[in-house]
Amino acid sequence: MKLHVIGCHGPYPVAGGCTSGYLVVHEGKALLMDCGAGVMGRLMKLWDPSALEAVLLSHLHFDHASDLLVMRYYLEIAGKTLPVYVPPEDDSPFRALLTAPAFDVRPYPAELEIMGLNITTLPVRHPVPCRALRLTDGEKTLVFTEDTNDCPGLDAFARNADALLADAAFLIPEWTDQKPHMSAAGAARLALAAEAKELYLTHLPVRHAPETLVQEAKQVFPRVRAVTPGMVIAL
Question: How far apart are CA 116 and CA 29, in angstroms?
Fold first, then answer.
């Protein structure tokens, strides 16, 4: 299993960059986790969008889903329909925009199998319905917290992850329990509690250098990096 980082900033991209988008490749097939602003163009350098097995949307905030609106045209021209998984309780106006022949919109079941990967989800703490994702091939496990503040059960969900991608949108002085995201230190505490092998900081805020977030996290958990566009994580 390989994870290709397409975009990693939020809630808006750096100049010339893009927001949340992660391509998972396994056994010659691929799925996309999130499809935020700017992801479509960069995805096309890595994979034919019409050949994806599915898109897993953690939630329907624009920085995680907006480029599906332009992917629709690509799929319609190619004559393809793509499964798109969303939180079942989400009834936002954006979900209505996905009503098109190009998309087979499906609510997340308790568990699903895609391209030899077992995928489970966990509701997490965000202003709109959102799911953390756990993908395993039976040997290696990738966990993506998606957008969340500290959340009961998340450490158990991420237990023994080989790669833990964790929301790190704030530094400690900015963070409060009422924020919609974790701090870098909070992501590190999660990795420590979950006994994760490696921590990768995501949802990077443009206002901070990634090195600053990493430095804060390393005070708690030593094996940490910030993801960068183009990074490939091999599991």
Answer: 9
